[in-house]
Write a sequence for this structure.
């Protein structure tokens, strides 16, 4: 067994700010993963992962958009110092500023398990695109890879139901 070491979350947040990366993995053990993520200027997809997820808001406030089994979009506000549980398979979209940080704890993916990143039409609510990825290592930043796939293709951003084209985020996002 490796030596057990405590982590200073203040130092982790400072490190992320200085690195320009969106997250820092604290550990990836055989059955669990923990990381600290910085908010993004822009987030629009809903993520469904195969494991339960616990999020603790270290700094700032998050609007956790999620979709009910009936397809309705709701928002849970998670304030600094609060914790929230998100069951496996729940489509969720954590939206918080780049000055905010969240600690995420979840089960490491098992072979064959897939994460799904789904975009919906802002005009009519139809599903636009789903990016399916096996997330073996969070250091590979699967969210950014899914965004490149979606925003890099006008076909992915065009609604088959109403024809609305989701615009690309501004250059700062």
């Amino acid at each position: 067994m490796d030596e057990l070491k405590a982590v200073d979350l203040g130092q982790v947040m400072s490190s992320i700010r200085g690195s320009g990366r969106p997250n820092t993995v604290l550990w990836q053990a055989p059955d669990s993963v923990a990381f600290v993520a910085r908010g993004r200027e822009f987030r629009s997809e809903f993520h469904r992962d195969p494991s339960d997820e616990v999020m603790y808001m270290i700094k700032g406030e998050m609007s956790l958009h999620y979709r009910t089994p009936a397809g309705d979009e709701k928002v849970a506000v998670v304030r600094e110092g609060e914790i929230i549980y998100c069951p496996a398979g729940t489509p969720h979209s954590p939206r918080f500023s780049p000055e905010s940080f969240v600690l995420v704890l979840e089960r490491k993916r098992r072979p064959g398990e897939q994460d799904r990143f789904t975009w919906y039409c802002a005009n009519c609510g139809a599903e636009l695109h789903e990016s399916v990825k096996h997330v073996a290592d969070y250091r590979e930043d699967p969210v950014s890879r899914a965004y490149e796939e979606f925003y890099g293709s006008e076909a992915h951003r065009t609604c088959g139901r109403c024809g609305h084209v989701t615009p690309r985020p501004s250059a700062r996002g």
Q: What stands out?
A: The chain has a mean pLDDT of 92. The longest strand covers residues 53-59. The radius of gyration is 16 Å. Helices lie at 9-19, 142-151, 154-157.
